[in-house]
User: What shape does this take?
Amino acid sequence: MIIELPFGLGTISAELLLLILPSLLMLIILLLIFGGDGSAKQVKRRVERIKTSNTRAATPESVSIRRSDTDSSIAVVDSLIKRLMPRPERLRLRLQSAGFSGSLGRYLMIGLVLGLITTGGLQFLSFMPLVVAILFGVFAAIMLPHAGLSFLIARRRNKFIARFSDAIDLMVRGLRSGLPITESIKTAGDEIVDPVGTELTRITDSVRLGESLEDALWDASKRLDIQEFNFFTVALAIQSETGGNLAETLANLSDVLRRRRQLKLKIKALSSEAKASAYIIGSLPFIMALLIFLVNAGYIMELFEDPRGLFMVFLGFLSFAVGIGVMYRMVKFEI
Assistant: This one.
């Protein structure tokens, strides 16, 4: 059965439409399952309250007439970003968190190229209607760069957490030898490799340019969005208000962070059996479908040619997605 699309976009078969619409519904359900994290939001709210209570009175900001180069080197692209993108500041923070050296315009160009390649490839390799290929191209242009950026952010955060305790130990040694906290942070930034050294060096550079240490730490905390660094920032903010032995405070913090990382590794080891079982069970339907296709392709292709079969495939993928979400929540622990 052929369905005429509105606004003169062409025609599409009912079987393909019956496959696309449930797939979009399944994507929405996956986003709802993996989207929110209540405990992380609570930690962010606590950090924001402490930041608000410890920040100094705001000073009038100076207006710069220098053109910003954080978007791209093309004025037209900069104008489009400012007018069309809803929240470019959030995307810039994600790029900084991932350690992406390129500009926002380059990131958008990567997404555009991926979308064009996906659309052209689907049109070249299949008889898919143009409007459907464009929809898949838009999806690829948005989700593929987002997924790659999320992977880079997670990898950089893991590297930061693994080396941050050593950086705090260097700061403690510097404080006990008589150095101020800013020089201790600079020493740790020079000794520790990226990404810890890069972020600490950026903090000391901000202090040299006239920004207060507390404001520089809060800017880095917002850029990194790592709980371990939030603990460090809160400890320095409270110590600046109340006083005390900063070296002892940071030494205790380093010990807590190490124990926290050890507990995370222990949880990962204990949950590895459940994860391996989930991988094996989850791959069985696809393996069996491939084996049946290799043995008797006509037998399994009826499942995709009949609308009732497509609906059964959708129900299978829906239950598959719900099961993945449940197992993901079961093996994920917040410390």
In short: The chain is about 80% helix and 0% strand. Residues 217 and 233 are 6 Å apart (CA to CA). The radius of gyration is 26 Å. The longest strand covers residues 2-4.
